[in-house]
Write a structure and sequence with these properties.
The chain is of the alpha+beta class. Helix content is 54%, strand content 9%. The protein has 23 helices and 12 strands. The protein has helices spanning 2-9, 11-32, 40-44, 48-54, 58-69, 85-92, 122-137, 144-162, 175-192, 198-201, 208-224, 226-231, 235-241, 250-263, 276-282, 287-317, 320-335, 346-350, 353-365, 405-409, 412-415, 433-442, 456-473; strands at 72-76, 79-82, 99-100, 173-174, 375-376, 382-385, 392-395, 400-403, 474-478, 486-489, 493-496, 499-504. The strands form 4 sheets. A 5-stranded mixed β-sheet has the order 1-2-8-5-3, with helices on both faces. Helix 8 runs antiparallel to helix 9.
């Protein structure tokens, strides 16, 4: 008791020492990045980023910071955000010593199971990427092109059979939903050898899309606040928060389906199939990791490709001259026998210059991934020259740097004074430094270097085919130009209600 009484006499001293230590810690955190300006909340805390996400306009919040404070601005005690394409390329290049930050941990779709995207272990990332590349590239998947062609035809059939408007009747179609039905059926088919069947049923089978829209904000917030990931390492807490294979709908149902299909590939009666899953197994991905890797490709692959289709279609529908020029190019190619039926080949689509310009411009003006994708400066620090200001700055080791996608891809220095305008013609200039600079920046929509998106080839085949067949078969108009869609951003996009009127050609 005497000891306790003596300690109680010094309680205020202990509190003062604690507060002094806290102030000193905060001062050190502030001082190491004091050369970089930013919003006050981001200077003294880590709350700015989650607050930006919760506005559901985080792409604009990131850009506002760089516009106000410069190409390298502070948004956290140890976090900077940049719209400098050359710095981002430097961080992700093949020989870069920069590494992934804990931001990526939020993409652990199954608690305790890393995938190639969520892991910040460079050795694991390199080895796993090598195992996955053949499956994503199509080399180990002989069904890749036929699968995509089949779902393009299913999309065309669905529209033609249910959503054709006439002079006597209007049948509105939510293009945002149909786009994701298409991309989700494609990715599940090439992954597992069987699609979810959204296009055939014209429905969000198992309510997967609804479930992922509800999860997206949580996933991105987990990345923004690593302490939450630490809490979720506690098994019973994780079980309360994350989807379960016992769920009858949503991501949990997809986990159950994935586990069943994976289990069928092993054992004495193992199913042998040359699809993406078969390629992963052939190249050494462990059985325990197959579900996480498959879920990643479905979540990331279907959502991002659908965003590009939705956004590009919206820009086409609100730019009549671009719309008609693209449709004329497709019609001329069809009339001259330069594109196949019933579905254009990838090579034929790549030979249509205006189509390629439209796709590039769609990718640029509405990047599908706008999350911070944070990287860590190597321990020894790094000295860089910012391309926009020609200023040389030192980046302390351990600093995290995030990606301002909106700022990068709407840079007036790279894309011209009309960078905020949808103008595919900018990509039709002749070879030279201006085009090379734009193409180099555009690469960042796919990630870059060692962190480049594995699903790029699949996505480009989808885009090449779907735009040709939509414009070859139909005419489109917005049902309500004053309210074209609902589009929210939390690092990925939540989009719905893109109602269009479709007429047959």
């Amino acid at each position: 008791m005497a000891v306790l009484e003596q300690l109680s006499q010094y309680q205020w001293h202990f509190l003062a020492l604690f507060l002094l230590g806290l102030v000193f810690h905060q001062y050190r955190q502030w001082a190491r990045l004091s050369a970089f300006k930013g919003p006050l909340l981001g200077t003294f805390s880590s709350l700015w980023l989650p607050c930006a996400i919760l506005t559901r306009k985080c792409h604009l919040k990131f850009n506002e910071v760089n516009e106000k404070y410069g190409p390298l601005a502070r948004i956290g005690t140890n976090l900077l955000i940049t719209n400098d394409a050359e710095l981002l390329i430097r961080m992700s290049s093949a020989k870069s010593n920069y590494t992934k930050a804990p931001w990526y941990h939020g993409s652990r779709i199954q608690p305790g199971h890393d995938n190639v995207f969520s892991s910040d272990n460079e050795k694991f990332h390199t080895e796993r990427k090598a195992q996955l590349v053949p499956g994503y590239s199509g080399k180990g998947n002989e069904h890749l092109t036929p699968s995509i062609d089949g779902h393009v035809q299913n999309l065309i059939h669905l529209i033609r059979s249910k959503y054709i408007s006439t002079e006597k009747e209007t049948r509105p179609m939510d293009l945002s939903r149909k786009a994701q039905y298409f991309t989700l059926d494609v990715i599940t088919d090439i992954a597992y050898g069987q699609p979810l069947g959204d296009l055939v049923d014209d429905d969000d089978v198992y309510k997967y899309i609804q479930s992922t829209e509800e999860m997206l904000e949580v996933i991105i917030i987990l990345g923004a606040m690593p302490i939450l990931n630490d809490i979720l390492k506690v098994q019973w807490i994780a079980e309360l928060v994350f989807p379960s294979e016992k769920d009858q709908t949503g991501v949990g149902r997809l986990i159950a389906i994935s586990k069943q299909l994976v289990s069928e590939r092993f054992g004495p009666k193992a199913v042998q199939r040359r699809d993406m899953l078969g390629s992963f197994i052939e190249h050494g991905v462990p059985e325990a990791s197959l579900v996480s890797e498959s879920l990643l490709q479905i979540l990331a692959g279907s959502d991002t490709s659908a965003t590009v289709i939705r956004a590009t279609m919206l820009y086409l529908l609100t730019n009549p001259s671009v719309y008609h020029r693209l449709q004329a190019e497709i019609d001329d190619a069809a009339n001259e026998g330069r594109i196949s039926r019933p579905v254009v080949t990838d090579a034929e689509a790549r030979a249509l210059p205006y189509l390629q310009a439209v796709i590039k411009e769609g990718l640029r003006i509405y990047p599908a991934v706008t999350g911070a994708l944070t990287k860590v400066v190597p321990l020894e620090g790094d000295t860089v020259t910012l391309s926009a200001t020609n200023e040389t700055v030192f980046l302390p080791g351990g600093t995290e740097i995030g990606y301002n996608a909106w700022g990068v891809h709407r840079s007036r220095a790279v894309f011209g004074a009309d960078a905020d305008v949808f103008r595919p013609e900018r990509w039709l200039i002749g070879e030279g430094p201006e085009l090379a600079r734009m193409l180099r920046s555009l690469e960042l929509v796919w990630g870059y270097g060692k962190y480049q998106c594995l699903g790029r080839q699949v996505a480009m085949i989808e885009l090449n085919k779907v735009f040709v067949e939509l414009f070859r078969n139909f005419n489109f108009a917005l049902c309500d130009p004053t309210k074209p869609w609902m589009s929210l951003n939390v690092g990925l996009w939540i989009q719905r209600d893109e109602w269009v009127k479709v007429t047959a050609r």
